[in-house]
Amino acid sequence: MSIVTSNALRESIIARMVRTTRIIDKMISEEVSQYNLTKPQFDVLLVLKFCNQESVTTTELAEELMVSKANITGIVTRLEKAKLISKVVDENDTRSKKITLTEPGLELIDRVMPRYFAMSDEIYSKFSDEEKQKLLSQLTFIEEFYGSKR
Fold first, then answer.
1. Which domain holds residue 100?
2. Per-residue pLDDT of the chain (150 residues; tens, 9 = 90+)
3. Looking at residue 49, which CATH number applies to its domain?
4. Residues with Cβ < 8 Å from 58, sequence gap 6 or more?
5. Domain count, the chain
6. How do strand 56-57 and strand 85-90 relate by DSSP bridges?
7. For residues 109 and 105, what is the distance between their CA atoms, to the nearest angstrom?
8. Domain for residue 18, yes or no?
9. Measured between alpha carbons, how far is 119 from 124 in angstroms, rounded to an integer?
10. Full-prediction pTM beyond 0.85?
11. Which of 25, 27, 85, 90 could pair with 96 as two cysteines, CB 3.0-4.6 Å apart?
């Protein structure tokens, strides 16, 4: 439980959203560390696994994960050294690299996913389908509203 309180509804909502995000990040970090992955590395593998494209650029990864290109570059370099992803020069833009999951990367993310989804199921089991849909709708609204302001 948080030691920070506020009588103002808006501050309470923001504080609770931030704290909840940190709790979930910590849970994920602890889970994926068992596979010698950091949470940011897992995030990259997850984006590559569920991406609607064959490959993505570092810029696209950075934008999707809302981190700096410098941060993504370091993560991608470590994943490439671990042979979990591959980088090739983009034929349309030689300054850009296209990133894809390798077979070992796909195998690893496929091993992690059942535990990740079990953890998610445990969290969301407390909500009805209607509540989950409403939460998703509200979070989507916040994301789309914020995204349109950028």
1. 34-117
2. 666 666 688 888 888 889 999 999 999 999 999 999 999 999 999 999 999 888 899 889 999 998 999 999 999 999 999 999 999 887 887 888 899 999 999 999 999 999 989 988 988 899 999 999 999 999 999 888 876 655
3. 1.10.10.10
4. 69, 72, 73, 76, 96, 97, 99
5. 1
6. unpaired
7. 6
8. no
9. 9
10. no
11. 90
Q: Give the three-class secondary structure for 3.
A: coil
Residue with tokens 């920070």: 4
Token pair of 129 as six digits: 């389908």
Q: CA dihedral defined by 38, 105, 56, 22, rounded to 10 degrees? A: -20
Q: Is residue 111 part of a domain?
A: yes
Let me know: does 112 contact 39? Beta carbons within 8 Å.
no
- Residues of 79-95 as b/e, b for ≥16 C-beta within 10 angstroms? bbeeebbbbeeeeeeee
User: Which DSSP helix (H) or strand (E) runs through 86?
Assistant: strand 85-90
β-bridge partners, 85:
101
Question: Is 93 a member of any domain?
Answer: yes
